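Shift notes (night). Ran Rhodanese-like domain-containing protein while the centrifuge was going.
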Amino acid sequence: MKAIGIIAGACLLLYIGYRTYRFLNLDKGLAKKIEQGAIVLDVRTPAEYRTGHLKGSVNLQLSRLHTAKLPLDKSKTYITVCSHGLRSVKAMNLLKEKGYKVFNGGALADLENEIKQ
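Came back to this:
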């Protein structure tokens, strides 16, 4: 019984840490950036994208961002998004290293909520 309590406590701490990480890494003012023409770049797999996505978003799987030539315009602003927020941070960092102007939109549900507000 004690082991179950320890495991449950560890899971709770991991979850709280994960939510805090997501909150701290999520950029602010994204709805306004989208209104000003920023492109939502959904870095989930094509199968995930087909299950639901933001209207007007572009699907470019995270693994494809490692290629030398990307079908993206460096004069545009991008907002990365994925299912839980971890891949969007990785995508943002990869694109920034390549010279793109990019912001982290986190999880798709988080960005959808910000746009609705």
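Residues 2-116 form a domain with the Oxidized Rhodanese; domain 1 fold (CATH 3.40.250.10). The first strand starts at residue 39 and ends at 42.
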